[in-house]
Write a structure and sequence with these properties.
By secondary structure, the protein is an alpha+beta fold. It is about 45% helix and about 15% strand. It has three domains: about 1-30 and about 345-525, Multidrug efflux transporter AcrB transmembrane domain (Multidrug efflux transporter AcrB transmembrane fold); about 35-105, Alpha-Beta Plaits, CATH 3.30.70.3400; about 105-330, no CATH class.
Length: about 525
């Protein structure tokens, strides 16, 4: 028994000290919030009239996008008719503008035959890498992944731009000279058959893709508002790849299904753009466009969707995450653009932090002074436990900052100071029970283990209530209040760890030692 106590005590101290030393040696420290380290503030203004509800929606979407991109605890709020975004730790204005450039409107455009684009400007030859994914419902329609390397190509047209609309025989040119409007990589000896003008959609454009190629797309028939806000997610596909799943809004399902039906039936407004491996024409594709760049061009595998859309293909994890962000981003009700960038000083926050630390230290010193006079020698365990607890909290805060995008703000510091009271309460509950046992005539050696056994349930129950409260506050709040809840929960969990693995063995070993023989514990004469 005594050996296990020593292992627990020494092992805990070594683990905590090693973690602290490792963080200090590697420079891993808690990321400070905007109020403590400063940063930049960007003002976003809607390009057209926006209601208060529109601004609230944009605020939430901007905050969600920034948090997914790794910005530490951004402060996004509506101020008048604008949206103010505070970015802690960001010093470069260009970086700040890139961070908040998340409000582009997503367009859904059919992929059409490349000859529909009269004046393409393509830096590199279109490749087979453009249409790489399929669209199907997640419930009852099976999906077939179409990777870029699996799509057959022809000598006359690059993959992704094949046309299936037949042209009358008299429209086929006799010469083999490629038209100026056709991409340069089409061989000169392959004639290009123009599409019948009456069947061609208007307003077609060549748009670049993420890999540098280009796609010819028709006019937009819907926007990203057909998708339910923040409903896009990534999951593992049936064949081991990644798929992106998104829900359709009730009022957007009709627009999506209208476009999907056109592409599935290969209507002139969304014709087939390729040939499947079995030799049949492939259904049309829907281009998902953000700020004039095609993010994905999935093939439509079913004409009607029942509220859920699944996009599958040869995605990497990062590509799937990026598409998910685009689909969530497409629900912006209005377009907003950066109007002004300001530097936010941390001087006020630094003064507040110093004041909070000084107040916390003064309060802690007063509490420890009282505990020393009240609990005598056993107060040494409290002091040692608080030191170990403080090192544990620092390491936990450094880990959270490195693994997530939550920064330590002034509100988080407040949560830590409040948690000191929770930690001290654990010692008071434990020691008061020991005090009662000694009054009843038990020796300190017998009173210590009995007291811990009877009070441990009370300690973890009280801490659990605090953790639950922190979780509820964290889930329902935003901004700095979340920082308070986060660090209140972390420090309370650290209290449970230190109480069981440090305080318990320290008190039990001290109660068994000769040091306490003849000493007065809690101001009481200890029975021999």
């Amino acid at each position: 028994m005594k050996r296990r106590l020593w292992i627990s005590l020494i092992g805990t101290v070594l683990a905590v000290v090693s973690a602290l030393a490792g963080n200090l040696a590697t420079g891993n420290q808690p990321i400070l919030g905007l109020d403590l380290q400063g940063g930049l503030s960007v003002i976003l203004a809607p390009e057209e009239g926006a209601t208060g509800d529109d601004l609230l929606v944009v605020r939430d979407l901007v905050r969600s996008s920034l948090e997914r991109s790794g910005v530490a605890e951004p402060d996004v709020r509506v101020q008048g008719s604008n949206i103010v975004v505070d970015l802690p730790g960001v010093k470069d204005k260009e970086e700040a503008l890139r961070s908040v450039s998340v409000s582009g409107i997503v367009e859904l455009r059919p992929v059409v035959n490349f000859v529909e684009c009269s004046a393409p400007v393509v830096d590199s030859a279109p490749t087979d890498d453009v249409p790489t994914t399929d669209v199907a419902t997640t419930d009852d329609v099976p999906t077939t992944d179409v990777a870029s390397t699996d799509v057959p190509t022809t000598d006359t047209e690059p993959s992704g731009f094949r046309r299936t609309v037949p042209a009358p025989d008299d429209t086929t040119p006799d010469d083999t000279t490629p038209d100026d409007s056709v991409p340069a990589d089409i061989p000169a000896d392959d004639p290009v058959t123009p599409v019948v003008p009456s069947l061609s959609p208007t307003g077609a454009d060549f748009l670049p893709t993420l890999d540098g190629s280009a796609v010819c797309v028709g006019p937009a028939q819907a926007s990203g508002e057909v998708f339910k806000r923040d409903s896009a997610s990534v999951s593992l596909g049936q064949l081991g790849g990644f798929s992106v799943n998104v829900e359709l809004r009730g009022d957007g399902q009709e627009s999506w299904n209208s476009l999907a039906t056109q592409c599935f039936n290969q209507l002139p407004t969304c014709p087939s753009t390729g040939i499947d491996t079995n030799g049949s024409s492939r259904p049309g594709q829907i281009a998902i466009v953000l700020d004039g760049v095609v993010q994905s061009a999935p093939v439509v595998n079913t004409p009607v969707f029942d509220g859920n859309v699944s996009i599958t293909g040869s995605f990497s994890q990062s590509e799937a995450d990026q598409l998910t962000d685009v689909l969530n981003r497409g629900a912006f009700p209005v377009q907003v653009t950066p109007q002004e960038t300001r530097t936010v000083s941390a001087s006020a926050g630094s003064d507040s932090l110093k004041a909070a630390i000084i107040a916390g230290l003064i309060g802690l010193a007063l509490v420890l002074t009282f505990l020393v006079f009240y609990y005598r020698f056993l107060a040494l365990v409290i002091i040692g436990g608080l030191i170990v607890w403080g090192m544990t909290v620092y390491s936990a805060a450094a880990f959270v900052s490195g693994a997530t995008n939550y920064a330590l703000s002034l509100a988080g510091v407040t949560g830590i100071i409040v948690a000191i009271g929770v930690t001290v309460d654990s010692y008071v509950v434990f020691f008061e029970r020991m005090k009662d046992e000694i009054r009843n005539g038990r020796t300190l050696r017998n009173a210590a283990p009995r007291s811990f056994t009877s009070t441990w349930r009370t300690i973890w129950s009280a801490d659990l209530v605090s953790v639950i409260g922190a979780l509820i506050l964290f889930s329902l709040s935003v901004g700095s209040v979340r920082g308070f809840a986060l660090y209140l929960g972390i420090t309370t969990l650290c209290d449970l760890f230190v109480c069981f693995f440090f305080t318990r063995p320290a008190v039990l070993l001290l109660a068994r030692s000769k040091f306490m023989v003849g000493k007065r514990a809690f101001g009481l004469e200890v029975a021999q």
